[in-house]
Amino acid sequence: MSIHTTSRASSSRSAPVAGGCGEVARLAVPLVFSLLSQSLMAAMEAALLGHVSAIAQGAVGLAWALLWPLQLGCNWSGIGVQICVAQAYGAQRHSACGNFAWQGLYINLLAWAVLVVAGLGSASLIQLSGPDPALVPPAAQYLRIVLLGSLPGLCNLTLVGFFRGIGDSTTPLLVTLLVEGINTLLAVLLIFGLAGCPALGVAGAAYASVTAASVGTLIYLRCFLRRGQRLGFLTRAWLPFDRVTCRRIVHVSWPIGAHATLEMSAWSLFTACLARLGSVEAAAHTIALRVLALAYMAGYGIAVATTTLVGQYLGAENPAAARRSMRSSLILVLGLLGGLGLSIFVWRVPLVRLFTQDPAVGAMAVSLLVYVALFQLFDALALNAIGALRGAGHTRWPMLAVLVLNWGLFIPSVMLVLFVWHGGLLGGWRVALGTAILTGLTLLWRAWRGQGASPSREAPAPSGGMDA
């Protein structure tokens, strides 16, 4: 055998399998680190405020419970841009990729207007949940600052959707690390009033977040414009409003926003109900949510990679690779979240100590982390299914499943357990775990019936068929 023949054979053996675990992992690893850094920042913020007071920590937890559904409900264009760009990129329609990103930015302006209105009414939003009165002023202050300054964050998520859609997960990772570094530094300075800065407490955490996001927007725009023009994604730097393209993004994206809003608003109501139990319960619940979000976002990184690869391969009319991507994702996300769940269970006491020194809060939070650990396996099933379904453009069915399971089952059961049976904090979390089990199994069943690996009529880019 000649040297050239040997070289070609070696190259063939080392080439990544389309949709294999190696390809999914190479795209997912930067995504996991990027999303983990954001969750770590949120967890660090909670830990810093825990050293201010239990009220400050509980107030920000309550504010985030309202902020999540609002932001996610208005950020559906970011994921929609990723889906549209991935399918267009797979179909070699490069100029369409840049156009999708620009139209997503236009959609952000409308979304920001909604968040501004919510920000101006933040005190009323907080009071509607009827929490401990001590939590209301700081929670409303935090919520107002973050919502009024949310436009940079919306733009960042849309531009991140562009980069993820073309298969570049490294650029968002590098920018995210820089932004979170700035956020951490500013949070420490502004919460505690160090280095001549005013001690703003809860407000300082909010101002740090908005400032860091604004720096990220400038960096993302520069990268998007330079690369877009150099590689043919943009025919010119600025693209005008395109009603048809915006309609396509909205068509595939609005169920994603509705999905997020339905799910997170259910958890917001859950948090508000628990806040009525007292400041200690609210603080313990906040700690559990931070750890849960940290683990969830790690798995979500693999789901995002699945969305990109399924979309690209269906756009390229390679359904076998799309199906293989979904299977590889399931293996990876089960391994990752299963390991994290075990770690959370084993290290739950030291984990809680990072957030609080209050013995009453700590004891409750340690018990809740047992449920957080169990969440991981069923979150893994749901994330794999959602990533595949979104990549194929099937965004409405997950929304309907969340509507039925969260609002038809979870919330009524929580009300019954908390206010009729007086099951307390642990009883509420048992209901949440049961809902997570049903959600994971239901979504996985739908995706593996073939819907997660076959193109949807909602998808805006050409795609190939795929057997169930």
Describe the structure in your own words.
The structure is a single chain. With 468 residues, this protein is an all-alpha fold. It has one domain. 82% of the residues lie in helices and 0% in strands. The protein contains 17 helices and no strands. The radius of gyration is 22 Å and the shape is globular. The relative contact order is 0.14. The model is unreliable at 1-14 and 458-468 (pLDDT under 50).
Blueprint of the fold:
Elements: H1 3-14, H2 21-50, H3 54-74, H4 76-90, H5 94-120, H6 122-128, H7 136-148, H8 151-165, H9 170-192, H10 202-231, H11 243-275, H12 279-315, H13 319-346, H14 348-355, H15 359-391, H16 396-420, H17 424-448
Helix pairs in contact: 2-3, 2-9, 2-12, 2-13, 3-7, 3-11, 3-12, 4-5, 4-8, 4-11, 4-12, 5-7, 5-8, 5-11, 6-7, 7-10, 8-10, 9-10, 11-16, 12-13, 12-15, 13-15, 14-15, 15-17, 16-17
Helix percent reads: over 70%
Q: Helix and strand succession?
A: HHHHHHHHHHHHHHHHH
Number of domains: 1
- Please give the largest β-sheet: none
Quick overview of this protein structure:
The protein is an all-alpha fold. It is built from 17 helices and no strands.
